[in-house]
Amino acid sequence: MCGFGAIALAAQWAGYTRESSLFAAACLIFLAMVFDAFDGAAARWTKQTTEFGAQLDSLCDAISFGAAPALLMLQFSQPVGYHPRVLWTAGAVYVACVVLRLARYNVNIGDPARAKGFTGLPSPAAAGVVASFPMMAFGPALLDTDGGQAGERVGEWIDWAAVRILPVVAVAVAGLMVSKVNYSRHFLARGRRSGPAVVRLVFMLAVIVAVPRVAAPFLTCWYAFATPLRAAWVRHIWPWFTGRPPADDPVPPPRSPHFAPGKKTVRADDPHRPPAEPPEAH
Q1: What value, to the nearest 5°, has the Cα angle with vertex 201 and ends 198 and 203?
Q2: What CA–CA distance (Å, rounded) separates 119 from 127?
Q3: Which domains are delineated in the chain?
């Protein structure tokens, strides 16, 4: 229902202003994310987990996190001057990647690795990235927040940039959904190489308090792009700077048990090989 409501509001069917319609559509997408985060736990708590429910959940996700954000992106960036075919292509790529992501998720239901995280950016997170830009652009004006003259100038520049880069961001998160990048289940997940969860929580709260206008796109983009950027740095950029192999390179094959470091290995058919010593007499 949240996805259908977001589509109806993004299409400006109710006759509200463009700003209020797109802002409300973005809020409904975030509300769908909240419901999606707890529906599985509620089904397990009530012992109502069925294959039918899993498939129905994926169909709802395709609407709430696929069709609704794509239409929201089209309506948000259309006044800028993008060619309609460009926007349509970006929206179509996004929807197709959401469907592929959900299909792969359903196929790998029995995979034990799913308990540790996700392979590819989850579709709710991608939808949150797309919906956060209209929320950032129209939220302060609708909520009547006063940031002063300097804040208004910064806000105008942010709105100018957000409308133009959202189609590019939508295509980028679409590619991450069908990628092989491993994502944690949430912002505060612990890991062998991740910082303490309390540090991330403090950082999130500091961002929300310091720059509330850009908190939503900043945090959602942080989750979407920080992981692949860190992986690219560790596997490609840092080894290129240092000349060292990546940390996840395969382990070299085991050496022969007769090999000793610093000792010259002599082939058996070498004519210069010294004769073998006779066995000791007992």
Answers
A1: 110
A2: 17
A3: 2-146+157-185 (1.20.120.1760)
Instruction: Tell me the CA distances in angstroms from 17 to 20, 110, 145, 248, one per residue in order.
Output: 5, 46, 19, 52
For the stretch 193-252, pLDDT in tens is: 455 567 777 777 887 777 777 888 888 998 899 888 888 888 777 677 776 666 554 444
- 253 pLDDT exceeds 50? no
Using CA atoms, how far apart are residues 74 and 170, in angstroms rounded to an integer?
10
Q: How far apart are CA 282 and CA 277, in angstroms?
A: 15
Q: Are 273 and 266 in contact (CB under 8 A)?
A: yes
Q: Which amino acid is at 251?
A: V
The share of the chain scoring above pLDDT 70, in percent, equals 72
Quickly list H helices, the chain. 2-10, 18-45, 51-62, 68-77, 84-107, 123-143, 148-177, 197-210, 215-232, 238-242
| Strands 118-119, 182-183: pairing kind | antiparallel
Which tokens is 62 given? 């395709």
Question: For residue range 53-73, what is the model confidence (pLDDT) as tens digits?
Answer: 778 888 999 999 999 999 999
